[in-house]
Design goal:
Blueprint lengths: L9 E2 L9 E6 L2 E6 L8 E4 H12 L12
Antiparallel strand pairs: 1-2, 2-3, 3-4
InterPro entries: DUF397
Length: 70
């Protein structure tokens, strides 16, 4: 089975543009890939690091939040 049809990958319900990522949980890891290149590289996070990453994105004081304003 190729990456495009592999089960378990999820895209955000808030995603409305082509600039999206998908995530998949495998055991104690979270995998992330670009929806435009599903057969390309996959980032791997442990669960705690992924939760910290998401919390940082949600923090309005974070420098990462400014990335969305470009």
């Amino acid at each position: 089975m190729d990456n495009e049809t592999a089960p378990g990958w999820h895209k955000s319900r808030r995603s409305s543009t082509g600039n999206c990522v998908e995530i998949k949980r495998e055991g104690e890891q979270v995998l992330m890939r670009d929806t435009k290149d599903r057969s390309g590289p996959v980032l791997t996070f442990d669960i705690d690091a992924f939760r910290a990453f998401i919390a940082e994105l949600k923090d309005e004081r974070s420098p990462l939040t400014a990335l969305d304003s470009d």
